[in-house]
Structure formats: structure tokens, C-alpha cells
Design brief:
The complex is a heterodimer of chains A (141) and B (222). Chain A is an alpha/beta fold and 141 residues long. Chain A has a single domain (8-131), classed as Rossmann fold (3-Layer(aba) Sandwich). Chain A has 5 helices and 4 strands, in the order βααβαβαβα. Chain A has helices at residues 14-22, 24-30, 50-58, 79-96, 115-131, and strands at 8-13, 37-42, 63-68, 104-108. Chain A has a 4-stranded parallel sheet with strand order 2-1-3-4. Chain B is of the alpha/beta class. Chain B folds into 2 domains: 2-118, Response regulator (Rossmann fold, 3-Layer(aba) Sandwich), CATH 3.40.50; 134-202, no CATH class. Chain B is 26% helix and 19% strand. Chain B has helices at residues 9-15, 30-33, 39-55, 73-77, 95-104, 148-151, 178-188, and strands at residues 2-6, 21-27, 61-67, 88-91, 110-112, 114-124, 127-132. In chain B, strands 3-2-4-5 form a 4-stranded parallel sheet, sandwiched between helices. In chain B, a hairpin with a 2-residue loop joins β6 and β7. In chain B, α1 (9-15) packs across α3 (39-55). Classes of the chains: A alpha/beta (141), B alpha/beta (222). Chain A binds chain B through residues 49-51, 54-55, 57-58, 93, 96-99, 135-138, 141, and chain B through 8-10, 13, 40, 43-44, 47-48, 50-52, 54-57. The structure holds iron/sulfur cluster (SF4) (2 copies).
Amino acid sequence: MSDFTPDIKAFCCHYTSQQTCAEGTEGLKQDGFPGSVSLFRVPCTGKIQVSTLLQAFEDGADAVYVVGCPVDGCHNVKGSQRAAKRVGAVKQALSELDVEAERIEMFHLERGFHPEFVAVAQEMDKKIKKLGPSPLKGESA
Amino acid sequence: MIIAERKPIAEIVEMTRDHEKILVLGCRGCVTVCSAGGEREVELLASLLRLGAKKEGRKIEVQEGSLVRQCDKEYVDSLDSWNGEYDAIVSMACGVGVNFIANLRSSTMVYPAVNTTFFGGSPEQGIWTEQCAGCGNCVLHLTGGLCPVARCAKSLMNGPCGGSQNGKCEIHSEVDCIWQMIHDRLEHLDRKEQMLEVAPIRDWRTAGHGGPRKTKRDDLTI
Ligand code: SF4
Ligand code: SF4
């Protein structure tokens, strides 16, 4: 399992990712952002539907995570709370399919540049490397 | 409206295991309004069925569709437009819809994707509560508009029972005693004396205890 490179899809809002992403891919890499994580930026995480998150798994993700504003400090008031609920719905669906629910997570981070943005990516990368490929890819069947 | 909720996905994967071409069919009636089986839920279930099959290394094709309602022959007939494209239907309508498809399509396997739970309404977003049990002989004129059939745990016609405490039902401290509410509402409307009328023993045949029910309107049939 040691040579397994996961496919992790991260959806993050403009506000939590803006400054970090301003450095570009190279800058992110230098900060230690793992190559296994692909970023999808959206204006607000409240816009992300459950179907979008499931589609990411259908497209081959081993894990998916969402980064939105702090629960009480969302730029769009309740966007990140809505996103957290939808992540919760996918967690439930994964459990019903007997798949590890921690393959999807929600993170609430402050806006602006901050090391946590990189830290959560590293956390997911480490966790998924340990978990191995998603059973939803059907490779183990 | 009729309230329903989706069955656990593993249960739906299990019941449809034999099929390779599935039509997930939503209903744009009640189950759309209660977010159990409308077009959005069809999209999710289709995705989950594909993921569930892939996990087991099975290949399936999932079509997504919806009907205006699944409880009218004319709409169920429009299933013809998917002829040949599926070998089973997973209906996201209430149980009426599933029955209608079974009644009208003798060669089609149809499976329920939702549990049909009750007739209710939504007091706030994301919450639904039971209000009527379709008893066929409405008594709301006697009870201040609040239903003792659906909302009293014992369907008492002369309540409250001896278990009501502080306005709550003895089955659970979170359940309002509907008879207390009927009393309080009638009092507020200055009609408390209605509570003194003793309701006679009720004939429950209209409530389905006389077998499946049917309504026929002469003015509407030809
Ligand atoms: S099939 Fe059921 S859910 Fe759909 S409109 Fe008819 S009663 Fe409502
Ligand atoms: S009395 Fe019967 S018809 Fe009237 S609301 Fe209650 S269950 Fe429904």
C-alpha cells in the first residue's frame, strides 16, 4: 500500500482559499500541499450539492473534502453550515454502503493565508494513504 | 401531502441486485415537496446505485426520470417513452405510485425506494408531522380542527385518557396530548362545552377496516 497515491478532491470556497491559491500551484507545493489533492474552487461552499460530492466519488476520488468559512463567520452567512450538512448526508450514504465515512470531511477555516489550509490537505492525504483506495472504485471486488 | 423517506441505500442495492438496467423514477407530486423522491433525489439515488454496484464489481446502467405523478393512469402510461431502456423500475413515489406501476405494467418489475410514512405537513423546513390518517369520516368539526385519529396515540374519540400530563402524551414527553390541545383551543374559541359531548362508539369501516377503499364520482365518470 506504500506506493498508493490517493486521488483526493477538495472543494473550497473563494474566501478560505484565495490567498493561499494566489501563490499558484508551485507556491502551494513549496508550502507542503500534497500532490494527491486536486482543488476545486467555488464561490461559496453552500452552492455545493450532495450530487456534486457523489459525482466526485463516481469520478474516482478516494476521498473528498470541503473547506468553508468558520461556522459563525461565513461570508454568505450560512453557506458553510449548509455545506457541512451536505457533507453529513454523504457520510451517512457512505456508511449505508459500508464505506468508511471519513472518506469525506468538512473543514471550517479562517479566511486569508493560513497554514491550516495546507495542514488539512496533509491530514487527508495521510489518512487516505492509510485507508487505501476507495472501495467505491470497485477495484477490490 | 403524503410524506415519505428514502430507504437505506444498502436495502435498495440489495433488492435490485438482479438488474443491470434500472430506471430510477421520481414523482413530481408529494414526494418532491417533502424532498424524498423528486428529481433531485433521483439524481442522488442514481449516483448511489452506480457507486453501490461498482463497489461490488457489478456493471449497471441507471436511467433517471420522473413523472408528473405516479398515481394517475395517464402519467404512468407515459412510461412508454422509456420502453426497452430498463429491466426494472425503482420508484421514488409513495406506495401509491409503486402500486400503480404494478397495476398497470404487468411485465415490469418495480421496487420501492422510499418508505411511505404518513399524511402530514411541514411546520418548518426539514420537519414533517403527521396530521390526518385518512379515516374516511372526518370529525374535525367536533374537535376544533385538530385530529384525534392521527394525533392521539390511542385514536381516542373521547379524550384525554388518564395518562396525559402537563399537556404531554404518556407515550413520550415530546408528544403533545392532542386532547389537551383540543380542549385548550375550544376554550380559547369559547366553545369548551363541546368537550362535554360524548362521542358514540365509532364505526371504523370507513377507515379501511372494511377492506380496501374506493371512491367513485358519477359526475366525473363516463
Ligand atoms: S404518486 Fe404518491 S407522491 Fe406521487 S403525486 Fe401521487 S400520491 Fe403524491
Ligand atoms: S378525523 Fe379522519 S379524516 Fe379527519 S383529519 Fe382525522 S384522520 Fe383525517
